[in-house]
Amino acid sequence: MSNPSALEHPTFKRVKAAFGSAKLQATEFRGQATLIVEPKDLHAIMKFLRDDEECQFNFLADVVGVDYLDYPSKMPGRFAVVYNLCAYSRDDRFFVRVYLDPSIPTEGIEEDPALFVDSVCDLWNSAEWPERELFDMFGIRFANHPDLRRIMLWKEYPAHPLRKDYPLRGRGERESYRVVDRTSS
Amino acid sequence: MPYTLTPDTGITPNADNIDYIKDHIDTGDRWVLNFGPQHPATHTTLRLVLELDGERIARCTPHIGYLHSGFEKLAEHLDYNQYVTIVSRMNYLSPISNNICWHGGVEKLFGIEITNRCKVLRTIMAELGRIQDHLLCVGAAALDLGAFTGFLYAFNPREKIHDILDYISGQRFHPDWTRVGGIMKEIPDEEVFKRMVKNFLHADLEQAIQDLENLVNRNRIFMDRTQGVGILTHDEAIDFGATGPIARGSGVKRDLRKDEPYLCYADNWDGEGAEAVKFSVPICHDGDVYARFLVRLEELKQSISIIDQLIDNIPQGSADVFVDEKITKPNKNEVYGSIEGLIQHFELIMTNRGWDAPIGETYLAHETANGELGYYTVADGTKCSWRVKTRPPSFYNFSMAAKLIEGHMLADIVAVIGSLNIVAGELDR
User: What pLDDT score was predicted for residue A6?
Assistant: First the structure.
């Protein structure tokens, strides 16, 4: 991550001016600007980024989840949610990221009160499916999401498979899957 | 259980906007129909649970995940070259575009500038990928509405693209043609390659487009079935994350080739002041199925013109970046003929060696046939990526299918889904 004094993206200043009290961090890597915010400030900052006349990030391209368990570089939290924003009027990209730390063991699918982020579906409809995918793959839940169901896997699947503590070949779900035959169905 | 609509959140999405349904809401005479996942008109494995009022769709709930194969988990265990075989299988209609985008993203992460020859070859192949994808989509648009001949007109020339892919990479469907910093292997004979591409463009493709236009464009049945169906407005297209021909069919002026230029779409791509390739971006304002069809047809013609500008000007030299940078595998002559080549080969191939990736994260998006395809790559300094998130255009394009379908007749579903050109491989990953 680059030297904070070299940050050039004008949006950083703009957000800093509007959210002076919030804890903000900024990084740039290969010309890509990322703003790190606290989960509680996320929704307000995203709304600002969309509506402010100098930001105008009208397009949410993607929502990315990353699990940093045993990542070689020190990270502020175990999970990251990265929002990929785009301003059509300026052809500009901007990344907003939040970090989350689980409060319970991450092997299962129990609801973890620490892994909660405010949904941005009310700002961009395009967030609906990627947030569902994040819930499915990482178990990060989104508050105020209109329809938070698993999207790829079925409801009973016993893990969130893109977490780093989930093995590549699974935990035998395929082998021990319940077989329904004619007599028992 | 399969025939229930979940969840029961009390939300009836967008149904209030449609006057017809407003009068019939909750009258108790609706019934639920399951559409897919195995149905010829869905083209791929996707499923819609429809709540019907007569033949009109009151509510539609899409279910995806039938082709989920854990590609992104695999990405964490395959190195930067190996993963190209997986991205080929995401969008199997234009795999070469995925290859080029994936390795473009890796090169951005590594900070590599590829050679001019490689840029030109990749641009040509990316456009062939676009043609390949659009041909299937416009053909299938006709097929879904009963015009089987139109499908054959469009599908036949795709075979020639497969021949070209076979010639340059050895595989017809999944070329896996790019490598970090270059391409898999040099083109066997450039003259043959040029001849194949030109023959395809001017003998087969132009004729096919002409035939298809004559058959379909002003066809009364086709127009009645597609005009005014599945309308997406300009603002909705941006809000729902639509990109590519679907957004441009709704009047969104956005094409990453122009807006975030890469390869030969950027000015000064060769470092000596070369101009970007010239092409125009077709826009349609109607936002219906017919508009998307017209945009795709016009993009086919623009692709022909882009390839024509480049095919006779392929720079000579190496397609791979220099061996000294220790990024690309040296060619076989060097491996067998010099100790440096042999060492370099093993440095990349052996299981405990590989690239010295930076610790960082980048995102690169290319304009592929369906829209913005991007790879968000997290690197941890080893030869495998820490995490790769694909931004598949189909995923976002399909997320608004329910909105487009609601209020229409049952038979319009195939027209709408065909126009969105859903590819389940990248939808489910």
Answer: 56
